[in-house]
Amino acid sequence: MLTVLIAGYFKHPETVLWVGDRMFVSDIGEFGKRDGKVYVKRGRRWSVWASYLNDPKGLAFCGGVLYVADVDRVWAVKDKSAVFMVVGPKDFKAQFLNGIACGRGGKVLTSDTFGNAVYEVNPRSKSVRMLFKVEKPNGLALDPRGNVYVITFTKPGRILRWDGHRLDTVLVSRDIDGGDGLIYVPDEGVLLASGYESGKVLKVNLNGTYSVIAKGLRTPAGIGFDGRYVYVPLLEVGDVKKFKVF
Fold first, then answer.
1. How large is the C-alpha radius of gyration of the chain?
2. Number of domains making up the chain
């Protein structure tokens, strides 16, 4: 059963990320206005964690640092309002950075949806290298073996697995049209995926079988998971909904 957790608080919520007892939400604001923010909720209290961003989308918490994918750059927020650019236009020619995830060895992975590529960013050396090319990559997730999963913003939506050498197909389905959010749940060995255009959230087994666990949503974007509940930001609505999965 879907429950409206937050209504009318955000303009365009894009991604939800749980870190311990804190919930982070990226809010694009008005597109292209540089009024983007990242909010944090602890207990019942909301506050702004980072502001004056462009159009912040994907969030990842790696090594005690919150990383934000934002159009053509990656930000690091080391503490509240302490925002630093990790890489940007001088380092690579990104068109639409969207998904982001913690990689191995302190690296960060990010997807360029309109640039059709997934990149690996080294925050220490502030360097970037392309991992692989893929059509319209969006959400990213890693499993304990280091496999990279990517969901594509295509019709039909696709979930692919990169093992370091090649891309294999996990799922192709109209149920994830406009593939957006992607989460790997290690305790269950499954993926949770959202279709921005299909209005659905799926639970996907690694053999490609799946079940629809929510439908009838309007623009579900970068979903979050706290171990029990999935949190669904509805980008064009401005709400965040939640529902129990396991």
1. 16
2. 1
